[in-house]
Amino acid sequence: MPGAEQAVIEAFRRGEAVDGPAIAEYEQRFGEYHGTQSATATSYGRMAFYYILRALDLEPGSEIIFPALTFWVIPEIARRAGLKPVFVDVDPSTFNIDPEKIEERVTTRTRAIVPTHLYGQPCDMNAILPIAEKHNLVVIEDCAQAAGARYRGRLVGTFGAASIFSFQMLKGINTYGGGMAVTNDALIGARVRELAAREPPQSRGELLKRFGTGLVARALVSPKGFTFWGFPMQAIASLFGHYDLSRFVWEKIRSLQPFPKSYHRRYSNAQAILGLRALANLDKFNTRSRAHALTLTRGLADSRSVLTPKVIDGAEHVYYQYCVYISDPERAGRRAIRRGVDFETTHVDVCSTMPLFKEFAVHCPGAEETAQALQLPVYSRLRDSDVELTSQIDQLVLRINNRVRSAEYLFPAPAEIRLFRRLDRGVSGRRSDLDRRRRDVWCRFAGLATDHSGRSDWRFSRGSDLFLCRS
Ligand SMILES: Cc1ncc(COP(=O)(O)O)c(C=O)c1O
Q1: What total of structural domains would you count in the chain?
Q2: What is the pTM for the complete model shown?
Q3: N or C, fewer C-beta in 10 Å, the chain?
Q4: What are the tens digits of pLDDT across the range 358-374?
Protein backbone atom coordinates (compact mmCIF):
# COMPACT_ATOMS: atom_id res chain seq x y z
CA MET A 1 0.00 0.00 0.00
CA PRO A 2 1.48 3.41 -0.97
CA GLY A 3 3.20 5.10 1.95
CA ALA A 4 2.70 2.18 4.31
CA GLU A 5 6.39 1.31 4.62
CA GLN A 6 7.20 4.97 5.28
CA ALA A 7 4.58 5.13 8.04
CA VAL A 8 6.12 2.08 9.70
CA ILE A 9 9.64 3.54 9.48
CA GLU A 10 8.39 6.76 11.07
CA ALA A 11 6.78 4.79 13.90
CA PHE A 12 10.17 3.19 14.59
CA ARG A 13 11.84 6.62 14.55
CA ARG A 14 9.29 8.06 16.98
CA GLY A 15 9.79 5.09 19.30
CA GLU A 16 6.18 4.02 18.71
CA ALA A 17 6.70 0.78 16.86
CA VAL A 18 5.92 -1.47 19.81
CA ASP A 19 3.28 0.48 21.67
CA GLY A 20 1.30 3.54 20.75
CA PRO A 21 -2.11 5.07 20.05
CA ALA A 22 -2.75 3.29 16.72
CA ILE A 23 -3.60 -0.01 18.47
CA ALA A 24 -6.64 1.39 20.29
CA GLU A 25 -7.67 3.37 17.22
CA TYR A 26 -7.45 0.32 14.99
CA GLU A 27 -9.50 -1.75 17.42
CA GLN A 28 -12.12 0.97 17.59
CA ARG A 29 -12.35 1.41 13.80
CA PHE A 30 -12.47 -2.34 13.29
CA GLY A 31 -15.36 -2.57 15.77
CA GLU A 32 -17.13 0.38 14.13
CA TYR A 33 -16.71 -1.11 10.67
CA HIS A 34 -18.44 -4.28 11.91
CA GLY A 35 -20.87 -2.46 14.17
CA THR A 36 -19.68 -4.48 17.15
CA GLN A 37 -18.96 -3.33 20.68
CA SER A 38 -15.64 -4.99 21.21
CA ALA A 39 -12.62 -5.66 18.99
CA THR A 40 -9.32 -6.82 20.46
CA ALA A 41 -6.10 -7.08 18.46
CA THR A 42 -4.03 -10.22 19.05
CA SER A 43 -0.72 -11.74 18.00
CA TYR A 44 -2.47 -14.07 15.50
CA GLY A 45 -6.03 -14.82 14.38
CA ARG A 46 -5.59 -18.22 16.05
CA MET A 47 -4.85 -16.56 19.39
CA ALA A 48 -8.04 -14.50 19.02
CA PHE A 49 -9.78 -17.87 18.74
CA TYR A 50 -7.93 -19.27 21.75
CA TYR A 51 -8.86 -16.31 23.94
CA ILE A 52 -12.51 -16.56 22.86
CA LEU A 53 -12.54 -20.26 23.80
CA ARG A 54 -10.94 -19.46 27.14
CA ALA A 55 -13.47 -16.68 27.71
CA LEU A 56 -16.36 -19.09 27.07
CA ASP A 57 -15.04 -21.30 29.85
CA LEU A 58 -16.47 -24.50 28.35
CA GLU A 59 -16.26 -27.73 30.29
CA PRO A 60 -13.13 -29.74 29.34
CA GLY A 61 -13.97 -32.35 26.72
CA SER A 62 -16.87 -30.32 25.30
CA GLU A 63 -17.36 -30.84 21.59
CA ILE A 64 -16.91 -28.07 19.07
CA ILE A 65 -18.01 -28.42 15.45
CA PHE A 66 -15.70 -27.44 12.59
CA PRO A 67 -15.96 -27.86 8.85
CA ALA A 68 -13.80 -30.81 7.78
CA LEU A 69 -12.09 -28.44 5.33
CA THR A 70 -10.30 -25.71 7.24
CA PHE A 71 -6.88 -24.50 8.30
CA TRP A 72 -5.53 -27.23 10.63
CA VAL A 73 -4.37 -24.73 13.23
CA ILE A 74 -7.87 -23.77 14.31
CA PRO A 75 -9.14 -27.22 15.43
CA GLU A 76 -5.70 -27.79 16.95
CA ILE A 77 -6.14 -24.64 19.01
CA ALA A 78 -9.50 -26.00 20.21
CA ARG A 79 -7.77 -29.19 21.31
CA ARG A 80 -5.20 -27.06 23.14
CA ALA A 81 -8.09 -25.34 24.91
CA GLY A 82 -9.24 -28.75 26.17
CA LEU A 83 -12.07 -29.25 23.68
CA LYS A 84 -12.83 -32.04 21.23
CA PRO A 85 -13.01 -31.03 17.56
CA VAL A 86 -15.85 -32.69 15.64
CA PHE A 87 -15.64 -32.48 11.86
CA VAL A 88 -18.68 -31.97 9.66
CA ASP A 89 -18.48 -32.45 5.92
CA VAL A 90 -18.48 -29.50 3.53
CA ASP A 91 -20.46 -28.91 0.37
CA PRO A 92 -17.76 -29.33 -2.31
CA SER A 93 -19.44 -26.80 -4.56
CA THR A 94 -19.19 -23.99 -1.97
CA PHE A 95 -16.28 -25.37 0.14
CA ASN A 96 -18.19 -24.35 3.26
CA ILE A 97 -19.77 -26.47 6.00
CA ASP A 98 -22.83 -28.32 4.74
CA PRO A 99 -25.72 -27.21 7.00
CA GLU A 100 -27.59 -30.44 6.26
CA LYS A 101 -24.79 -32.49 7.82
CA ILE A 102 -24.48 -30.55 11.06
CA GLU A 103 -27.26 -32.04 13.15
CA GLU A 104 -26.12 -35.63 12.70
CA ARG A 105 -22.88 -34.70 14.48
CA VAL A 106 -24.48 -32.82 17.39
CA THR A 107 -24.40 -34.71 20.70
CA THR A 108 -25.27 -33.84 24.29
CA ARG A 109 -21.67 -32.66 24.70
CA THR A 110 -21.66 -30.23 21.75
CA ARG A 111 -21.27 -26.65 22.93
CA ALA A 112 -20.05 -24.60 19.98
CA ILE A 113 -19.87 -24.41 16.20
CA VAL A 114 -17.36 -22.61 13.98
CA PRO A 115 -18.75 -21.55 10.61
CA THR A 116 -15.64 -20.82 8.55
CA HIS A 117 -16.27 -18.46 5.64
CA LEU A 118 -13.76 -20.25 3.50
CA TYR A 119 -12.03 -18.75 0.48
CA GLY A 120 -14.00 -15.52 1.01
CA GLN A 121 -17.50 -16.92 0.61
CA PRO A 122 -19.93 -16.50 3.53
CA CYS A 123 -21.48 -19.65 4.94
CA ASP A 124 -25.20 -20.15 4.63
CA MET A 125 -25.93 -18.48 7.97
CA ASN A 126 -29.71 -18.62 7.51
CA ALA A 127 -29.43 -22.39 7.64
CA ILE A 128 -26.74 -22.59 10.35
CA LEU A 129 -28.07 -20.15 12.94
CA PRO A 130 -31.41 -21.94 13.59
CA ILE A 131 -29.52 -25.22 14.14
CA ALA A 132 -27.19 -23.51 16.59
CA GLU A 133 -30.12 -21.96 18.38
CA LYS A 134 -32.03 -25.25 18.55
CA HIS A 135 -29.08 -27.01 20.20
CA ASN A 136 -27.93 -24.04 22.21
CA LEU A 137 -24.53 -23.85 20.51
CA VAL A 138 -22.23 -20.85 20.70
CA VAL A 139 -21.41 -19.62 17.19
CA ILE A 140 -17.82 -18.47 16.63
CA GLU A 141 -17.28 -17.27 13.08
CA ASP A 142 -13.91 -17.80 11.43
CA CYS A 143 -13.61 -14.80 9.12
CA ALA A 144 -9.85 -15.14 8.55
CA GLN A 145 -10.35 -15.41 4.78
CA ALA A 146 -13.44 -13.26 4.41
CA ALA A 147 -12.97 -9.78 5.91
CA GLY A 148 -15.54 -7.50 4.31
CA ALA A 149 -17.68 -10.29 2.84
CA ARG A 150 -21.43 -9.99 3.36
CA TYR A 151 -24.29 -12.39 3.74
CA ARG A 152 -27.71 -10.95 2.93
CA GLY A 153 -26.26 -7.46 3.27
CA ARG A 154 -24.67 -8.12 6.68
CA LEU A 155 -20.92 -8.35 7.25
CA VAL A 156 -19.49 -11.72 8.22
CA GLY A 157 -18.32 -11.63 11.79
CA THR A 158 -21.57 -10.13 13.02
CA PHE A 159 -23.73 -13.26 13.14
CA GLY A 160 -22.19 -15.24 15.98
CA ALA A 161 -21.39 -14.66 19.63
CA ALA A 162 -17.82 -13.87 18.61
CA SER A 163 -15.60 -13.90 15.51
CA ILE A 164 -11.98 -14.02 14.50
CA PHE A 165 -10.02 -12.30 11.75
CA SER A 166 -6.47 -12.79 10.53
CA PHE A 167 -3.99 -10.18 9.27
CA GLN A 168 -1.43 -12.63 7.97
CA MET A 169 0.41 -11.54 4.84
CA LEU A 170 -1.94 -12.98 2.21
CA LYS A 171 -5.19 -11.94 3.88
CA GLY A 172 -7.52 -9.09 2.87
CA ILE A 173 -5.94 -6.94 5.58
CA ASN A 174 -2.21 -7.55 5.79
CA THR A 175 -0.32 -6.31 8.83
CA TYR A 176 2.44 -8.92 8.54
CA GLY A 177 0.68 -11.09 11.07
CA GLY A 178 -1.86 -10.45 13.79
CA GLY A 179 -5.53 -11.02 14.33
CA MET A 180 -8.68 -9.61 15.87
CA ALA A 181 -11.36 -10.99 18.17
CA VAL A 182 -14.72 -9.32 17.67
CA THR A 183 -17.82 -9.67 19.81
CA ASN A 184 -20.97 -7.97 21.00
CA ASP A 185 -20.91 -9.91 24.24
CA ALA A 186 -19.53 -7.65 26.96
CA LEU A 187 -18.29 -10.54 29.12
CA ILE A 188 -16.49 -12.34 26.28
CA GLY A 189 -15.05 -9.01 25.10
CA ALA A 190 -13.69 -8.08 28.54
CA ARG A 191 -12.16 -11.51 29.15
CA VAL A 192 -10.51 -11.63 25.70
CA ARG A 193 -9.04 -8.17 26.28
CA GLU A 194 -7.69 -9.22 29.65
CA LEU A 195 -6.06 -12.35 28.20
CA ALA A 196 -4.51 -10.46 25.27
CA ALA A 197 -3.19 -7.73 27.59
CA ARG A 198 -1.42 -10.32 29.76
CA GLU A 199 0.95 -11.22 26.91
CA PRO A 200 4.31 -9.44 26.78
CA PRO A 201 4.87 -6.87 24.02
CA GLN A 202 7.01 -7.74 21.02
CA SER A 203 10.56 -6.47 21.17
CA ARG A 204 11.84 -3.99 18.57
CA GLY A 205 14.08 -6.76 17.24
CA GLU A 206 11.14 -9.13 16.80
CA LEU A 207 9.24 -6.42 15.00
CA LEU A 208 12.12 -5.59 12.68
CA LYS A 209 12.41 -9.28 11.81
CA ARG A 210 8.64 -9.50 11.21
CA PHE A 211 8.64 -6.60 8.75
CA GLY A 212 11.95 -7.57 7.13
CA THR A 213 10.94 -11.15 6.33
CA GLY A 214 7.38 -10.04 5.51
CA LEU A 215 8.52 -7.48 2.94
CA VAL A 216 10.87 -9.94 1.27
CA ALA A 217 8.15 -12.62 1.15
CA ARG A 218 5.66 -10.14 -0.23
CA ALA A 219 8.04 -9.04 -2.96
CA LEU A 220 8.61 -12.67 -3.92
CA VAL A 221 4.90 -13.44 -4.28
CA SER A 222 4.01 -10.17 -6.05
CA PRO A 223 3.10 -10.41 -9.75
CA LYS A 224 6.59 -9.10 -10.67
CA GLY A 225 8.32 -11.43 -8.22
CA PHE A 226 6.43 -14.33 -9.65
CA THR A 227 7.47 -13.43 -13.18
CA PHE A 228 11.15 -13.47 -12.23
CA TRP A 229 11.36 -16.42 -9.87
CA GLY A 230 8.00 -18.08 -9.26
CA PHE A 231 7.11 -19.15 -12.76
CA PRO A 232 10.60 -20.20 -13.86
CA MET A 233 11.07 -22.31 -10.71
CA GLN A 234 7.61 -23.80 -10.84
CA ALA A 235 7.98 -24.51 -14.54
CA ILE A 236 11.12 -26.51 -13.78
CA ALA A 237 9.38 -28.25 -10.87
CA SER A 238 6.47 -29.15 -13.15
CA LEU A 239 8.84 -31.27 -15.26
CA PHE A 240 9.26 -33.50 -12.22
CA GLY A 241 5.60 -33.69 -11.23
CA HIS A 242 4.92 -31.26 -8.38
CA TYR A 243 4.60 -27.75 -9.71
CA ASP A 244 3.08 -26.21 -6.59
CA LEU A 245 6.04 -25.00 -4.55
CA SER A 246 3.86 -23.08 -2.11
CA ARG A 247 3.68 -26.20 0.05
CA PHE A 248 7.30 -25.59 1.04
CA VAL A 249 6.37 -22.29 2.67
CA TRP A 250 3.24 -23.56 4.43
CA GLU A 251 3.33 -23.82 8.15
CA LYS A 252 4.61 -27.16 9.40
CA ILE A 253 1.75 -29.34 10.63
CA ARG A 254 2.43 -30.28 14.23
CA SER A 255 1.00 -30.40 17.71
CA LEU A 256 0.70 -26.92 19.21
CA GLN A 257 1.52 -28.18 22.67
CA PRO A 258 3.27 -26.01 23.83
CA PHE A 259 2.48 -22.83 21.91
CA PRO A 260 5.48 -21.30 20.12
CA LYS A 261 6.83 -18.18 21.82
CA SER A 262 5.54 -15.86 19.08
CA TYR A 263 1.94 -16.75 19.99
CA HIS A 264 2.35 -15.20 23.41
CA ARG A 265 2.91 -11.68 22.20
CA ARG A 266 0.94 -8.48 22.04
CA TYR A 267 -0.12 -6.82 18.79
CA SER A 268 2.11 -3.86 17.97
CA ASN A 269 1.52 -0.22 17.14
CA ALA A 270 3.43 -0.45 13.85
CA GLN A 271 1.13 -3.29 12.72
CA ALA A 272 -1.93 -1.29 13.76
CA ILE A 273 -0.76 1.63 11.59
CA LEU A 274 -0.86 -0.73 8.61
CA GLY A 275 -4.19 -2.17 9.77
CA LEU A 276 -5.83 1.26 9.83
CA ARG A 277 -4.78 1.93 6.25
CA ALA A 278 -5.81 -1.49 5.02
CA LEU A 279 -9.18 -1.33 6.77
CA ALA A 280 -9.90 2.02 5.10
CA ASN A 281 -9.24 0.38 1.72
CA LEU A 282 -10.80 -3.01 2.40
CA ASP A 283 -14.03 -2.46 0.47
CA LYS A 284 -12.13 -0.99 -2.48
CA PHE A 285 -9.75 -3.97 -2.63
CA ASN A 286 -12.58 -6.46 -2.30
CA THR A 287 -14.44 -4.74 -5.13
CA ARG A 288 -11.37 -5.15 -7.31
CA SER A 289 -10.99 -8.85 -6.44
CA ARG A 290 -14.66 -9.33 -7.23
CA ALA A 291 -14.20 -7.61 -10.59
CA HIS A 292 -11.27 -9.95 -11.37
CA ALA A 293 -13.43 -12.91 -10.37
CA LEU A 294 -16.22 -11.71 -12.63
CA THR A 295 -13.78 -11.45 -15.54
CA LEU A 296 -12.78 -15.05 -14.97
CA THR A 297 -16.32 -16.28 -14.51
CA ARG A 298 -17.40 -14.56 -17.74
CA GLY A 299 -14.33 -15.78 -19.59
CA LEU A 300 -14.98 -19.35 -18.49
CA ALA A 301 -18.77 -19.25 -18.73
CA ASP A 302 -18.91 -21.41 -21.82
CA SER A 303 -16.15 -23.71 -20.74
CA ARG A 304 -16.82 -27.37 -21.17
CA SER A 305 -14.21 -28.44 -18.74
CA VAL A 306 -13.77 -25.74 -16.10
CA LEU A 307 -16.40 -25.35 -13.43
CA THR A 308 -16.35 -21.84 -11.96
CA PRO A 309 -17.17 -21.11 -8.28
CA LYS A 310 -20.71 -21.32 -7.05
CA VAL A 311 -21.87 -18.31 -5.05
CA ILE A 312 -24.75 -19.03 -2.69
CA ASP A 313 -27.88 -16.91 -2.62
CA GLY A 314 -27.38 -13.62 -0.81
CA ALA A 315 -23.59 -13.99 -0.50
CA GLU A 316 -21.12 -11.26 -1.40
CA HIS A 317 -18.01 -13.34 -2.01
CA VAL A 318 -14.65 -11.57 -1.61
CA TYR A 319 -12.66 -14.28 -3.42
CA TYR A 320 -9.71 -14.83 -1.14
CA GLN A 321 -9.35 -17.77 -3.52
CA TYR A 322 -11.12 -18.40 -6.83
CA CYS A 323 -11.64 -22.16 -6.88
CA VAL A 324 -12.35 -24.16 -9.98
CA TYR A 325 -12.83 -27.79 -10.77
CA ILE A 326 -11.05 -28.89 -13.89
CA SER A 327 -11.35 -32.14 -15.74
CA ASP A 328 -7.65 -32.96 -15.48
CA PRO A 329 -6.32 -30.79 -12.63
CA GLU A 330 -2.85 -32.35 -12.55
CA ARG A 331 -1.99 -31.75 -16.17
CA ALA A 332 -3.87 -28.48 -16.47
CA GLY A 333 -2.00 -27.11 -13.45
CA ARG A 334 1.39 -28.13 -14.78
CA ARG A 335 0.77 -26.71 -18.21
CA ALA A 336 -0.73 -23.49 -16.86
CA ILE A 337 2.24 -22.80 -14.64
CA ARG A 338 4.57 -23.12 -17.62
CA ARG A 339 2.55 -20.45 -19.40
CA GLY A 340 2.54 -18.01 -16.52
CA VAL A 341 -0.88 -18.81 -15.04
CA ASP A 342 -0.52 -19.22 -11.31
CA PHE A 343 -2.42 -22.23 -10.02
CA GLU A 344 -2.45 -23.39 -6.45
CA THR A 345 -3.63 -26.70 -5.09
CA THR A 346 -5.72 -26.93 -1.91
CA HIS A 347 -4.98 -23.94 0.27
CA VAL A 348 -6.36 -25.41 3.49
CA ASP A 349 -6.55 -28.91 4.93
CA VAL A 350 -8.93 -31.84 4.89
CA CYS A 351 -8.72 -32.12 8.68
CA SER A 352 -10.97 -35.19 8.88
CA THR A 353 -8.22 -37.29 7.27
CA MET A 354 -5.10 -35.70 8.81
CA PRO A 355 -2.86 -37.88 10.99
CA LEU A 356 -2.78 -34.96 13.46
CA PHE A 357 -6.49 -35.49 14.09
CA LYS A 358 -6.62 -39.27 13.76
CA GLU A 359 -8.59 -39.63 16.99
CA PHE A 360 -11.31 -37.41 15.48
CA ALA A 361 -11.22 -38.99 12.01
CA VAL A 362 -14.51 -39.26 10.16
CA HIS A 363 -15.47 -39.94 6.57
CA CYS A 364 -16.16 -36.62 4.83
CA PRO A 365 -16.39 -37.31 1.09
CA GLY A 366 -17.31 -33.70 0.25
CA ALA A 367 -14.14 -32.36 1.85
CA GLU A 368 -12.09 -35.08 0.18
CA GLU A 369 -13.54 -34.09 -3.21
CA THR A 370 -12.32 -30.52 -2.72
CA ALA A 371 -8.73 -31.74 -2.92
CA GLN A 372 -9.37 -31.89 -6.68
CA ALA A 373 -10.05 -28.15 -6.88
CA LEU A 374 -7.46 -25.68 -8.10
CA GLN A 375 -7.22 -22.07 -7.10
CA LEU A 376 -6.68 -19.21 -9.49
CA PRO A 377 -5.41 -15.80 -8.40
CA VAL A 378 -7.84 -12.86 -8.34
CA TYR A 379 -6.33 -10.75 -5.55
CA SER A 380 -6.66 -7.00 -5.91
CA ARG A 381 -2.98 -6.30 -6.74
CA LEU A 382 -3.24 -8.46 -9.85
CA ARG A 383 -3.09 -6.64 -13.18
CA ASP A 384 -6.07 -6.87 -15.53
CA SER A 385 -3.78 -8.46 -18.13
CA ASP A 386 -2.93 -11.26 -15.68
CA VAL A 387 -6.61 -11.99 -15.19
CA GLU A 388 -7.17 -12.01 -18.96
CA LEU A 389 -4.37 -14.51 -19.34
CA THR A 390 -5.81 -16.65 -16.58
CA SER A 391 -9.20 -16.73 -18.23
CA GLN A 392 -7.52 -18.38 -21.21
CA ILE A 393 -6.83 -21.40 -19.07
CA ASP A 394 -9.90 -22.82 -20.67
CA GLN A 395 -8.09 -23.09 -24.02
CA LEU A 396 -5.33 -25.03 -22.33
CA VAL A 397 -7.64 -27.44 -20.64
CA LEU A 398 -9.68 -27.95 -23.77
CA ARG A 399 -6.53 -28.80 -25.62
CA ILE A 400 -5.62 -31.32 -22.96
CA ASN A 401 -9.02 -32.89 -23.23
CA ASN A 402 -9.18 -32.87 -26.97
CA ARG A 403 -8.40 -36.51 -27.36
CA VAL A 404 -10.88 -37.57 -24.71
CA ARG A 405 -13.50 -35.19 -25.99
CA SER A 406 -13.51 -36.43 -29.52
CA ALA A 407 -13.88 -40.01 -28.36
CA GLU A 408 -16.33 -39.78 -25.51
CA TYR A 409 -17.93 -36.40 -25.72
CA LEU A 410 -21.56 -36.07 -24.66
CA PHE A 411 -24.56 -38.32 -25.03
CA PRO A 412 -24.90 -39.96 -21.65
CA ALA A 413 -26.89 -43.13 -21.62
CA PRO A 414 -30.61 -42.57 -20.99
CA ALA A 415 -30.33 -44.16 -17.56
CA GLU A 416 -27.71 -41.62 -16.63
CA ILE A 417 -29.83 -38.71 -17.78
CA ARG A 418 -32.71 -40.00 -15.70
CA LEU A 419 -30.48 -40.36 -12.68
CA PHE A 420 -29.11 -36.88 -13.17
CA ARG A 421 -32.60 -35.41 -13.34
CA ARG A 422 -33.47 -37.12 -10.09
CA LEU A 423 -30.30 -35.81 -8.43
CA ASP A 424 -31.10 -32.41 -9.84
CA ARG A 425 -34.28 -32.43 -7.79
CA GLY A 426 -32.30 -33.42 -4.72
CA VAL A 427 -33.27 -37.10 -4.76
CA SER A 428 -30.40 -39.53 -4.55
CA GLY A 429 -30.15 -42.04 -7.36
CA ARG A 430 -30.39 -45.83 -7.30
CA ARG A 431 -27.02 -47.30 -6.47
CA SER A 432 -27.45 -49.90 -9.16
CA ASP A 433 -27.58 -47.25 -11.86
CA LEU A 434 -23.92 -46.29 -11.67
CA ASP A 435 -20.86 -47.40 -9.89
CA ARG A 436 -20.17 -45.62 -6.63
CA ARG A 437 -17.49 -43.32 -7.88
CA ARG A 438 -19.51 -41.93 -10.73
CA ARG A 439 -22.57 -41.54 -8.52
CA ASP A 440 -20.48 -39.41 -6.14
CA VAL A 441 -19.29 -37.28 -9.00
CA TRP A 442 -22.83 -36.67 -10.17
CA CYS A 443 -23.92 -35.79 -6.67
CA ARG A 444 -21.05 -33.38 -6.36
CA PHE A 445 -22.13 -31.39 -9.35
CA ALA A 446 -25.88 -31.70 -9.10
CA GLY A 447 -26.17 -28.57 -6.96
CA LEU A 448 -23.99 -26.58 -9.30
CA ALA A 449 -25.94 -27.61 -12.31
CA THR A 450 -29.18 -26.28 -10.92
CA ASP A 451 -27.75 -23.12 -9.45
CA HIS A 452 -26.00 -21.70 -12.48
CA SER A 453 -28.72 -20.06 -14.49
CA GLY A 454 -29.15 -21.68 -17.84
CA ARG A 455 -27.01 -24.60 -16.84
CA SER A 456 -29.65 -27.00 -15.64
CA ASP A 457 -28.97 -28.94 -18.79
CA TRP A 458 -25.34 -29.74 -18.02
CA ARG A 459 -24.49 -33.36 -18.48
CA PHE A 460 -21.53 -35.59 -17.90
CA SER A 461 -19.51 -37.23 -20.55
CA ARG A 462 -19.55 -40.96 -20.53
CA GLY A 463 -15.84 -41.20 -19.80
CA SER A 464 -14.47 -41.66 -16.34
CA ASP A 465 -13.00 -38.18 -16.69
CA LEU A 466 -14.88 -35.55 -14.71
CA PHE A 467 -15.54 -33.00 -17.35
CA LEU A 468 -18.91 -31.45 -18.02
CA CYS A 469 -20.64 -30.67 -21.25
CA ARG A 470 -23.49 -28.41 -22.13
CA SER A 471 -26.19 -30.30 -23.96
C1 LIG B 1 -9.50 -20.26 7.68
C2 LIG B 1 -8.45 -19.73 8.59
N3 LIG B 1 -8.71 -19.63 9.90
C4 LIG B 1 -7.82 -19.14 10.75
C5 LIG B 1 -6.58 -18.72 10.34
C6 LIG B 1 -5.57 -18.29 11.38
O7 LIG B 1 -5.08 -17.03 11.19
P8 LIG B 1 -3.63 -16.67 11.77
O9 LIG B 1 -2.62 -17.23 10.84
O10 LIG B 1 -3.62 -15.18 11.82
O11 LIG B 1 -3.55 -17.29 13.10
C12 LIG B 1 -6.25 -18.77 8.99
C13 LIG B 1 -4.92 -18.33 8.52
O14 LIG B 1 -4.44 -18.61 7.49
C15 LIG B 1 -7.21 -19.30 8.09
O16 LIG B 1 -6.95 -19.41 6.78
Answers
A1: 1
A2: 0.84
A3: C
A4: 999 999 999 999 988 88
